[in-house]
Write a structure and sequence with these properties.
The protein has about 90 residues and is mainly α. It has a domain of about 60 residues. α5 packs antiparallel against α6. The N and C termini lie far apart (about 40 Å).
């Protein structure tokens, strides 16, 4: 299954929003080729899950199940999401 251009565009926009944080945590030069490759790898991994399996996933579980070496940007975006969720909910 191929990722739509809309999803790729939204992913790129999300990365651009948090570019400063991501750049501080990664030594690599992130370009569209790297970002699209990471997104393709992520999509392939999770597109095979059933809806029941997806419902049983939460952000923290997903974060600890992936390798930051394989998902440089996605792991950092998950960290940002987890941190902001905890901060916003006061937990």
């Amino acid at each position: 299954m191929k990722i739509s251009e809309d999803i790729k565009g939204k992913f790129k926009q999300l990365v651009e929003t948090y570019q400063v944080i991501i750049d501080k945590c990664n030594d690599s030069n992130l370009n569209d080729h790297i970002l699209n490759g990471e997104l393709d790898l992520w999509y392939t991994k999770y597109s095979n899950l059933t809806s029941f399996e997806l419902k049983n996933k939460n952000t923290i579980k997903v974060y600890f199940q992936i390798s930051p070496d394989d998902y440089l940007v996605i792991s950092k975006l998950l960290q940002i999401f987890i941190t902001s969720s905890i901060y916003c909910h006061g937990e």
